[in-house]
Structure formats: C-alpha cells, structure tokens
Amino acid sequence: MHLFSPDNNPGSSFVNLLTAVGVHAPAPESKIDVPHATTCVALRYADGVLMAGDRRATAGNLISHRGMEKVVQADNYSGVAIAGAAGPAMEMIRLFQLQLEHYEKMEGKQLSLEGKANQLSMMVRGNLPAAMQGLAVVPIFGGFDLLDGTGRLWDYDVTGGRYEEREFVATGSGSLHAGTVVKVGWRTDMGRDAAVALACRSLWEAADADSATGGPDALRGIYPIVATITSAGWQSVDDAELAGVFQSIASEVQAR
Predict the structure, then answer these.
(1) pLDDT digits (tens, 9 = 90+) for 53-102
(2) Which of 15, 212, 248, 250 is deepest in the core (most CB within 10 A)?
C-alpha cells in the first residue's frame, strides 16, 4: 500500500497515480484520420429549396474521395446535405431514408416535413457519443412543405438541436466563405437559374479559400451535386448545365 504526503497526492486521477508509483501510463493510440465531408449550402428561392454540396472528402491532409455525394434525396419532397464524419453520416442517411419509407408504407401517407426534421434531429442526438469522440455529423435538411406550399430549411448541431432557417444555411469547413457569398447574393424572389448560379458561386469561392472543399473538376467531369425541391418534387441539376455555370464563373474570374 502506497502512502502519499499531502503535497504529492495524485488525487482521483488514475494516470497521476501510475506516475506517482513509478508506472508509466500507456501511450494513447495514434489518431485515425477518418474521411470527412465538407461544404454544403442550401437556400430558399421562389419555387422551393435548392441544396448543393462539393464532392471532396478529406482524411487529414489527404483527399480520400473526389466524387462523394453529400446531397442525398431523402424522399420525393425532401433531401439531406451532410458534413462531418463520412461513414456515420452515410449510415445515418440510409437509416433515415428507410424510416421515411417505412412510415409511408405503414401509414399510407408521407410523414409531414416538420416530422421528418424531428426524426433527423433524434438521429443526430443519438450520434452524440460518437461526436464526442470526433465522429460528428452535422446535416442540413430541406424540403417542400405540401401543406404550406413553400420550401423550408433546417440545420442542426451535434446535440441534435434543430433550427429552422428562413433564407439560407451553410455547413462544413468552407461554410464561412460559402455562406458569405450566399448572404450577399440571396434574394427572396430568386428564380431557379439564379439560385443555381448563386450556389455554384458559393462553392467556387469556398474551394478557392478552403483546402478541404473541392471545386469543379472539368478534367474528370466531377461537379458539385445540386438539386432543387419544389412542388414537382426532387430534381437534380445535370452536369452539363453545371459545366456551363462554372465555365461562366471561371471566365468572369479570369477577366477580373
């Protein structure tokens, strides 16, 4: 039995106790670089909601994936954009899609948009223990509310808190730059084409300032995922249109 003087008391710390008795604590395991999704934006416009996300996933200082899809259709009238640990995020989205489909099969109708936002909130809250270990998932949820006839957006924190946004929202490592661009260019009565151009511009500027955000890759034909959700449902913007939008941005930047 070891006895300690008041000035050498290790207290309640087991590591300090080992040190005091001459036993070295085991070295912590080296950190694992988990692939992370980065920048996503979403905004309301005249006809509904637009969601967009770059395609790059990073693991530490390396690019782990160049073609990750961070904007995913949840059902006919809603979608999720993810940022954070890629593995838990994709698992969460697949389970969320399954739950929405199961509800529709059992009840014969779709869950309300508010109910979908609440369901995703509980799933983010359930991931909190993993988030405390560095595997956080911070999604954006958006959709078209058939009851109100308007697009709606929510963002979340790691504790599952959900917050409805009236205009736009951005998440991920490049969110400061992307969100600033959207903030400057957003208008209440924006049409679909203007909303697509603004979202693409925001991701361009984020990629220019944030190393974890991937810009358009014309060489490989990889462009951000952009989708609209309106009364007509989920509609993806095809790469041919996005190529033209980014070419216009590039020409403008080059001229400047």
Answers:
(1) 999 999 888 898 899 999 999 999 999 999 989 889 999 999 999 999 99
(2) 212
Do residues 17 and 179 lie in contact, with contact meaning Cβ atoms separated by under 8 Å?
Answer: no
- Note whether residue 230 is domain-resident: yes
DSSP label at residue 95:
H
Q: Are 176 and 164 in contact (CB under 8 A)?
A: no
Is 38 an active-site residue?
yes
The verdict on residue 231 lying in a domain is yes
Residue 143 in contact with residue 74, Cβ under 8 Å?
yes
Which tokens is 64 given?
Answer: 């782990």
Each residue's pLDDT tens digit, 69-81: 999 999 999 999 9
The rounded distance, in Å, linking the Cα atoms of 27 and 242 is 49
Provide the domain count of the chain: 1
Q: Which residues span the domain enclosing 162?
A: 36-255
Question: What are 95's two structure tokens?
Answer: 């389970």
In a domain, 15, yes or no: no
pLDDT of residue 133: 87
Sheet of strand 57-59: strand arrangement: 62-65, 57-59, 36-37, 84-85
**CATH number, domain at 157?**
3.60.20.10
Backbone CA torsion sign across 198, 203, 206, 207: negative
Q: Degrees (nearest 5) of the Cα angle 165, 156, 58?
A: 115
DSSP 127: T
Half-sphere exposure in the Cβ direction for 77 (13 Å, CA)? 24
Catalytic residue among 19, 38, 39, 171: 38
pTM, rounded to two decimals: 0.84
